[in-house]
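Chapter review: from sequence to fold.
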Amino acid sequence: MFLSGFDDHRHMVSTPSAEVSYVEIGTGPTALFVHGIATNAYVWRDLIDRLSDIRRCIAIDLPLHGQSPAAQEMTIDGFADVLAETCERLGLTEVDLVAHDTGGAIAQVFAARHPELLRTFTLTNCETRENIPPAAMAPTVDLARSGQLAPAAPAILADPAASRGFFEIGYQNAELLTSELVNAFLEPVVGTPAAAEKFQELIAGLGPDALLAAEPALRELHVPTLIVWGTDDVFFDVKFAYWLRDLIPGAGEVVEIPGGRLFFPHERAAELASHIRRHWIPA
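The token string follows.
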């Protein structure tokens, strides 16, 4: 499924906090997909292609990302509010929530606040309260906190190697990372001075507070939860998958994806889809 075909299914919804672009494909019970920082709904396109026969798949662009404009509050808490408002506006009362990367942190906060909206929960490699921001992201976070990330954005966009460098470390096979996809990820978040300033604000503000606040409710979350984790991710070590399993009472076994890196939901979508299908429709 090419990006243009994916965008044929795109819509926009207005919420109190933000204008949210989303892609909707398929029929059946609703599955809601949440991406991470500096990507967008495109990261889910191959997975959705394998699940849309059994679910109404909705993949949002978080504020500032993809085709969604920035929101006033560029934080994990603020994005969790946007997710809840999107569900309200679209009339989503029971969803299979699937989240990745920083989308996983946002989804944890959302799940803690709105467990009644979840049918099932699926987390892939993502932050936990002990690992936000992850250590491997420190150079980018330091740039943001010193106010140097936004000024550096034009040079990054002008250098294809530098642009690819933001994402290559997350792939086993970087050939899947086309220039079209790199541009689709980066241009919305750093393509203008205003966007770059907002992105800098988002990165600089990353911290554990929202996840720490969500933790008591997550310890009471009995929603069936699947945790699927790539084992070779430099950002999110597999030990954090087991920490989440022990935190959330609805979680079962951790499914390890040997050799998988951060973007395995894109790169190994068929493999992930098989695990999600079993989670959604148990034998």
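Two observations follow directly from the output. The two ends are 29 Å apart (CA to CA). DSSP finds 13 helices and eight strands in the chain.
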